[in-house]
Amino acid sequence: TFVLSPKVELDMKFSLFAVTAALATGLTGAFAPVASPRAFMSHAAPRRSAPLSAFTSNIFETTEVKLAETTETIVKGGRDLFPLLPKAFEGISKIGVIGWGSQAPAQAQNLKDSLAVAGSDITVSIGLREGSSSFAEAREQGFSEEGGTLGEMWSVVAESDLVILLISDAAQSKLYQKVFDTMKPGATLGLSHGFLLGYLDSIGEAFPPDMDVILVAPKGMGPSVRRLYEQGKEVNGAGINSSFAVHQNKSGKATEVALGWGIAVGAPFMFETTLRDEYKSDIYGERGILLGAVHAIVEGLYRRYQKQGMTAEDAFLNSAESITGAITKKISTRGIKAVYDDMSEEDKKVFEKAYSASYSPSKEILQECYDEVACGNEIRSVIMQGDRVNSGKGFIGKIDGTDTWQVGERVRASRDDDKIPLNPFTAGVYVATMMAQIDVLLEGGHSYSEVINESVIEAVDSLAPYMHYRGVAFMVDNCSFTAKWGSRKWAPRFDYILDQLAYTAVDNGAPVDQTKIDAFTGHRVHQAVEECCKLRPSVDISCTAPTSTKEIVIK
User: Are 155 and 178 in contact (CB under 8 A)?
Assistant: First the structure.
């Protein structure tokens, strides 16, 4: 008889999961022929592993939207719907928000404010680990022990009818069983990320069958969820779009609770997903164009443009500033293809060279990343890094110390937004990576609403404004632990492959692959993106406006 250490046991569980996943996929896949270049330019409609039927609600009005060749059901939000919240939360007297990371401060404050507007007596209470330094921050935002809105996490979990678990993903993997055991009968478990399901799948476990399990996942970092909510109070609300999922519906009321939660945190519109699709698209997306890939693109082009003779300031203007101050703003209001359509014929030629050279190298890394997430490897990586950080063997270091971001501070200090260039080469690289990310998700069976939010809207409406305001670290480090670690891990991969394969191809005179350009200009996603642009927040996020939200700067 022998006893396995927790680490060895975890290794074995993940290894078994990987084998199971391989068998489920089919061994023939391992020996399949190499895909032709054409396979890297997909027009395919999304295929879902678990199709979703159109959801219904007896409380909130649903709307059908046409996205490419599919029709999806959504719920549009707005402050005018707040009076319906008491009905959606029927039977709930206390909502416990557990944690105080990226999402928790924003969601708790938005929930509290929305319920107050609705005239509801539902209590929103913050639950923190005993001795946490976050108690002081929560008190500053109006939560208190005396008022019953702040307490030790296990007490709050035990008392709440809706437990919104917003501690880090790594911490959830350690504490999930105690959470399940502590929740009172009939309580609902709320998540804003499907990571915990991915972990439970990997070790052959599941949520207790006697509870509702729902998800509301804002498609943006927590500070942006709060900022847009605050800034939209005079225009019937503005916020961050959210996906929602009902994983278990023991009570029969889970859909209404999830929709109420999303509307209360300020979502302009909500679309349905599954917990599995959410964690696969979300973990993957933040390592790609949302955070990791865009960081890599800026660093690589900043170096490249200086080698071509630009000053450091002009190199930053034509890389980082071009993305955050010109390209993403155009995508936000008019769609991806508008970036290309508005160019002169000469600039289109430059864009096409960059796009043609960058699409396949970017897609190679993106497909690898998606596969790593889907099989559980990336989940394991997050947990292991959490263990290293907690044991003092790892850390999350500062990422804006390079010359790129030091020069960026000077450029921002004298910035004239009207004079920021839209560099066609930068646009070609950025758009190629965004389109490659979109194609991987569509080929993985994700819905257009999920693909567009995880690859486009979150990038241009939530994250890029933070980089534009204060640099890459301000964007990355105000996201979750899972996101900031993943961005640091994968950004160097994109930097390397674009430098080694894409930029060298251009420099060596590689001809433009017209099939890639035709695939881009004729892609079905463009109509879907343009339709989603109509549902964007009613105001642009302002990072300079006063806010009560928590924002992080790593020293």
Answer: no
DSSP 347-407: HHHHHHHHHHHHHHHHHHHHHHHHHHHHHTHHHHHHHHHHHHHHHTS--------SHHHHH
By C-alpha distance, which of 187, 148, 196, 458 is closest to 328? 458
pLDDT in tens, 147-188: 999 999 999 999 999 999 999 999 999 999 999 999 999 999
Given phi > 0 = left and psi -120 to 50 = alpha, else beta, which region is 68?
Answer: left
Which position has the token pair 């046991």? 9
Cα separation, 459 vs 440, whole angstroms: 17
Q: Around Cβ 116, how many Cβ atoms within 10 Å? A: 13
Nearest residue to 466 via CA among 418, 430, 412: 412
pLDDT digits (tens, 9 = 90+) for 301-329: 999 999 999 999 999 999 999 999 999 99
Strand partners, 76: 269
End-to-end CA distance of the chain: 49
Region of 183 (left: φ > 0; alpha: ψ -120 to 50; beta: rest) is beta
3-state secondary structure of 63: strand
Element (H, E) at 411: helix 403-413
Q: Two tokens at 446?
A: 């994700």
Q: Where are the alpha helices (DSSP H) in 50-133?
A: 85-88, 104-117
Ramachandran sector of residue 376 (left: φ over 0; alpha: ψ -120 to 50; beta: rest):
left
Extract the tokens encoding 209. 């069958």
CA distance linking residue 250 with residue 406, whole number of Å:
54
Q: Tell me the catalytic residues.
A: 193
94, 88 contact by CB (below 8 A): no
Among candidate residues 153, 286, 160, the one with its CA nearest the CA of residue 219: 286
